Amino acid sequence: ANKRIKVANPVVEMDGDEMTRIIWAFIKEKLILPNVDVQLKYFDLGLPHRDKTDDQVTIDSALATQKY
């Protein structure tokens, strides 16, 4: 039987820089994804990607947070 918790709506995932990125990946892979059936809307808010998108990714992630 599937014991994963079903989440009805997507969840916005905002990835950060350095250790926060590493810690979040560990938590997500070890604790969340094995136990929760959730659709993630991923946004890379690491500094290189924010620079590459002229901070548009920050705006897009905020709008997605409002939407979901």
UniProtKB/TrEMBL annotation:
One of its GO terms (molecular function) is isocitrate dehydrogenase (NADP+) activity. The gene is Idh2. Keywords: Glyoxylate bypass, Magnesium, Manganese, Metal-binding, Oxidoreductase, Tricarboxylic acid cycle. Its cofactor is Mg(2+); Mn(2+). SUPFAM superfamilies: Isocitrate/Isopropylmalate dehydrogenase-like. The lineage of its organism: Eukaryota, Metazoa, Chordata, Craniata, Vertebrata. This is IDHP dehydrogenase. GO terms for cellular component: mitochondrion. InterPro entries: Isocitrate_DH_NADP.
